[in-house]
## 1
Amino acid sequence: MTAEPPSPVDHPPARAGRREWAGLALLTLPLFVLALDASVLFLAAPHIGADLAPDANQWLWIMDVYGFMIAGFLITMGAVGDRIGRRRLLLLGSAAFALASLWAALADSPIALIAARAVLGVAGATLMPSTLALIRTMFRDDRQRTTAVAVWMTTFSVGVALGPLIGGALLEVLPWGSVFLLALPAIVPVVLLGRMLLPESRDPAPARTDLPGAALSVIAMISLVYGLKELVAQGPEPAGAIALLLGLAAGTVFVRRLRRVPAPLVDPALFASRALRTALVLLLLGVFSATAVNFLVPSFLQASAGAGPLVAGLLTAPVAVAAIGGSLAAPAMAGRWGPLPVIAGGAVLSLAGHLVLAQAAAGGPVWALVAGGALAVLGVSPTTVLGTDLVVSSAPEERAGSAAALSETGGELGVALGIAVMGGLASAVYRFRVESLLPAEVDPATAAAVAENAVSAERAVSGLPPDTAGAVLTAAGEAFASGVSAAGYACAAVALLLAGLAVRSARTRR
């Protein structure tokens, strides 16, 4: 009698040990650097302007080229990491980021600074998908991986919160180039210790890189983000509209190409996963909602409440603390109730926060506005953590870099759309309301200047009598408050959509 072979046993995934958690600490450093780099440039802006004297067009590129390059190259770098190895790409990108930071610190002309910022953006695009893909490889246990993603994402919030403090302290005693050197102490340990603490992972059967597909993805993302920024800054002008159309056209060709070439930049099988598609939408909506709060609350405090940049930054500290708390609490809540119910419940909490924000902006106290913003961000922060985790975990390990890049691309689009849509709505309501609130004695030229935006209103009243100038600024503040209130109600609708989608997805999974 022949013995039957033993039945297969499903072994739980191996839990991460000390080396993996030490590796996670190393992986948080690049994200912390990216957060610092995104926040300190605004503080250094006056010093850069006084030293390099860039013209208006050069100044716009100094500010924006970094974000354009990150958004444009995320998908390409995620695919490259799958092919050559995510650790190798992370180390190469970290070294490039350190060198570009040194170049930016020593730049002696606007063109040199623009070029350095562009290289920083391309290098930054290698860091984000590589670190997230390595987390997918290092933490195979679901709860540990969710915790690792939460720690990783919280690092970005901490960097954004600390960036102005660290950068401001440096600028008190050192030249403006010192803010770019902040990257070096964090990046150097990654380069030196990466091989020791981080595993290598790659697609075991990599194909040749689809260069035309890479070009299409870069053109699509840069054009879309540029067009959305122009839409907010300039309104419906031809340049922004053309960029948006170009981005949509390139994106359409890119998606169609995925199914026609033998080795596409992104495996179209990824999009066959309903869980991944849903997670991407949840992530985009969550980032959209959080970005709208982070954009509107400081703008309101400065344009309507009369707070200076420093006071506005201090008043928005509760919003940053709420983001950190919501991100860190997400893994424990997801472990108890599941990620989708937590996302749904957080979205309802965020909806309440947006409604408070909308009421406060319409005439309530400043503390209520900040409290509403903090409540909205507290509720939506678990979505950004759990949505990212759902995207990465929904893809096979050999496609972890591409999945991580899709996650980061969704986040970048959420940021751009949050600023463009809610900023555009607030501006449209402002222009509509301010015309009816201006005093009758204001001449048409001044009225047209005031109607552009709340910032131009302060310049437009410089030659008016004090009483008239005060009335104009009051009108502009009330009009901008109406715009922020309208955006708050719109964000509440987005939060309701987010909650409904999460509930529906939870029922589908069951």
## 2
Amino acid sequence: MMEKQMIHVIGGGLAGTEAAWQIAKAGVPVVLHEMRPLRKSPAHHTEELAELVCSNSFGALSSDRAAGLLHEELRRLGCIIIGTADEHAVPAGGALAVDRGVFSHNLTETLGSHPLIELRRSEVQEIPTEGVVVLTTGPLTSPALTEDLQRFTGMEYFSFFDAASPIVTGESINREIAFFASRYDKGEAAYLNCPMNREQYLHFWQELCAAEKAELKDFEQETAKFFEGCLPIEEMARRGEDTMRYGPLKPVGLFDARKGDFRAPENQSQRPYAVVQLRQEDKAGQLWNMVGFQTNLRWGEQKRVFRLIPGLEEAEFVRMGVMHRNTFLNAPQLLHSTLQFKKRPTLLAAGQLVGTEGYTAAAAGGWLAGTNAARLVLGLEPVTLPTTMMMGALFDFISSASPKHFQPMPPNFGILPELGKRIKNKQERYGMYRDRALGDLDSWSRGLRASAA
């Protein structure tokens, strides 16, 4: 059995926070390295652990949705990220969204007070060569560590460009125009919706296409590659007049109850041509995120163009949209599904660095990498998860996909093994995926506990 040595986790985002917690929970001492505030990143605004830099939403809450299933798997596995998200949730219809400030502050205090966790505020420029190490530096890995990681892997990184949406104050939204509703009335009506007629939409689309973008500064513009799951709104607009209306501005299923039931045949003519949705950022409803409006427009242009949206004419922006580089490993060439490097099994990685997309996937990677790091120190075999689970399927995918065309992958039912029979009804099919996943998780967990007894 290996000596009960200290594990080093590099990066205090969602994955790193989760990894450090799982290591300490296993009774192993851990140092969590976070370079903020000594060295700032292009996207972070605070020095808190697990800061949410893009949206405040973890995705769909229902367990018959891909993100929701991953939430439930993590709840059953004792994930501190999801547990804290549940504790500090804000109304968001069918989504799990949090008061981001309280969420991150709570996690920072919880980890900071754990006797087995040492939080070091310093930049790590090289991968430690000894002991068990977990890399969770995310898409904004510092240049020095990026170079060292490139030397270690002996291969080029892939990189894409990611963007964050603006946030406006609730009191600056015109409530005579914006209306509360969730799509198809699912969940609590927790979204504010700004409807557009055809003339308003076309004017907005034309101005958005013509708006001036910010320079990418440190990045090579000719090599910029947008990740389709987080496409800047101006890039989406340039792809065609109706692209936004089939994306984040789709009017389907959104009805203003103040004007009667749009679903009634006699009211179909009143249906909006496009709808901009705003999601609540904090429990008090003082801050609202422009859903799907990730952008790299100049800040002055953002204010000018986004105030063309009905209901946002007087919008007060508390955070403008920003754009930054994301870096991720070619995981199929480098990692096992245990999140260990093939070249060095005592080095693990998790989060967006390994090519998983989304907050919940980062937490899942942190759980697995932290669990396996602790098991290595304790002299136990690393675990793999059943591929019928969303977690297991996700890590199996990133470790076995085609390296040539590897791109970040969010949780989705398409990566799960097919069911034994064909089910046409999508909701029923997803429900069966969920039941199988959670059943296999419970069986796997019982087996794991029995082996450790």
## 3
Amino acid sequence: MSQTPNPTVREVNFDGLVGPTHNYSGLAHGNVASMTHEGLVANPREAALQGLEKMKSLMDAGYAQGVLPPQQRPDLGALRALGFTGSDARVLARAAEEAPQVLRAVCSASSMWTANAATVTPSVDAPDRRVHFTPANLQSSFHRYLEPATTGRVLASMFRDERFFAHHPVLPSTPAFSDEGAANHTRLAGDHGEPGVHLYVYGRQAFGGDGVEPKRFPARQTLEASQAVARQHGLEASQTVFAQQHPEAIDAGVFHNDVIAVGNGPVLLYHEYAFRDEQGTLDALRARMASPLIPVRVPVEAVSLDDAVASYLFNSQLLSNPDGTMTLVVPGECQEREAVWRCLQDHLLAGNNPIAEVVVKDVKQSMRNGGGPACLRLRVALSDEERAAVSGRVLLDDALHGELTAWVERHYRDRLAPADLADPALAHETLTALDELTRLLKLGSVYPFQL
């Protein structure tokens, strides 16, 4: 399908606000960082402020920046659905005593990683010329399966003008249609306003396939889910490439494609073990893209899979600059791994590619749970007219940043251990904070307790 380029289209990064129950419960099987740091004492206030600092610094550098609110946690409704009854305090106490892992799950603050929130297709690629959204079902883990209903309400509130935005239902929450959102989706094009090609990366096939899958950790994304999302958004075969993630990468802790590859514009920065069929994936992209693909390959000799996972080099933000260069925003952990830092300096910055700058950000609170700079944002390409149609007060400016910072400092604790999750005062603090946040962001009633 041929669409006309729109010169006003610009990428907006919508970062997730870290929730007040940010903690280290080690809930994500296959996420090495999450499992390694299980039981540590977290600092929700620091985590939220680190995220806001990253948003503000990118906004100050000229990148369009938005915010997404956290989920309502603890999810007392989920506990009641599982048979816990009585007052809120009684429900929490029983859960802590009888099912502590379930309590940890309903207190998860993992919605901060909005790369998992949904898959987005910009209007320049869609047949109806609207921006399309499908919330991810996240069915592969209970603590994330709880998110899509609220995510859908939040996105529908922010992008509510039906002239510009289209919202699709969550895929069936079954293993066959396991969908982890934009963390396994990359759009490549010469420019954000140019028609693009959508790279969907999956870990396994639910129906058929040759059975080559990871052996140690689960493959979370299915081919069938990726294909269904592409159909929902009206994409044609000429606009899509479906590639299998390398099973060895998943077994090394690469639970999403955005932990081993990142793309933006015409650039695809990827590890040698990102795709099971590396050459076939590149050939398919080249055959479909209107502009030349610029692949930037990092060989395993330069960065091992272990170093890639520990540093989250590929879970960095790749941002387009007006002069055609790109900026790579990496977590501080990249400086701590000699091979990774050397690769950034000698292979990427000194290489023949558009990556001209590396910016280091401290997101340690997120990294300990297995999420780097790229996990924290959902990319939405919007034209001038579409940006003007965004509802609420969710596009970041200095005033909003200041108010959100003050809101965090008022409501967030500076210490939270897993044992604290049963505290009924925490539940009350969280509801109070979220009620104030929806007024601050002018989103209306999006949380279960507000409906």
## 4
Amino acid sequence: MTSLDILAIALLAFFATGYFVLAGADIGTGMLTPYLGRTDHERRLVITSFAPFFLGNEVWLIATAGVLVGCFPDLEGELLSGQFAVLVPLLTGWIVRDIGLWSRGRGPGPRWRALCDGAVVCGSWTVAPAWGWLLAGLLTGTPYEAATGPTAILTALAVAALFAAHGLGFATLRLTGLPYERARLLVGRTGSWQSFALTAVLLGALPALAGSTLPLTEHAADGATLALLVPALLVLTPLLVAAQVWTWRTFRHRVTRPSYL
């Protein structure tokens, strides 16, 4: 194993972990929107709590896919073909969710907003267990075929529950009024930051554990390709982190009124 192999694996793990921790917050909050927001105004508050973050969070997934395609092309092809049945609902849920978020404030009235809210919730509830289904195959040592049976079902449900818990902790940090009170009720005596930090650690551990089962070294690209891609990624990574820090710092205050969504 060369130093470039190690750096490529580290970058893949870093981006995947970043996605699960950051995007897990907005996916989880989207899953809980019907509980947190009982009225149109409250639902707008809930969506406003994560609206500034979701696009930036998705960049981490794109970066993960980019590292996988560029630095581990053979493995990427085998994974995509083997996990095709999982990727279809995952990508479908992702698209439906984003359409709901983008379209909510651009429709004619409350029925349109309710339809978009439904798309956000359904998309979120599709994406979260789909990730669990994918992880079930990786964690059980069958990365080249979709997991089946009770293990796949239980893993999908457990991961979905973890996403929801992460979103709940995020909601207690961002919301105010009745939506905050509802989130705080489920968090219980655990502090908001403690709850969010705990679920962040658990979600961050999932891609690391799954990645440890993959033959990454054996499927790494040739030295010339890594010599070109890895330094470029090392230059771009601090920029991505800086942009993410700026976004979270800018929108660090609690939501008190709805946005254009």
